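Here is a typical protein record:
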Amino acid sequence: MNVRQLKAFCSALPGASRALYGEPSNILVYSVGGRTFAYFKTSEPEKWRFSTRVSPDRFIELTDVPGVKPARYRGRYHWITIVEVARFPAGYLTELVEASHQRALESLSRMKRAAILDLAQNGETRSFASA
């Protein structure tokens, strides 16, 4: 899976929205209902490094894998950074992103979560970032 495919996958998740933040952050953030579930770094020297949230058990497991490290400033919250997306197994990567998306979705209020899932079932897209 390359960066373009991963970006498309993140965008296709139910209720997902994306926002590009310029200087000084330089990140492309994917969120659901205002809760971030993944992001890409968009500036050099870390361009297209991908970060997502994982469970505490997976955090310990994955930070021992070459090319995966704790995410800068977010490592204590069990966020990891994958240095080269193309070298990471595609199936495992999609599983991690889906789990992070699900965790973000579950952190929303019941009403907001139901609205997002209802729109997703009807094939509609709408951003809930500020709702």
Summary: Strands lie at 16-21, 27-32, 35-41, 50-53, 68-70, 79-82.
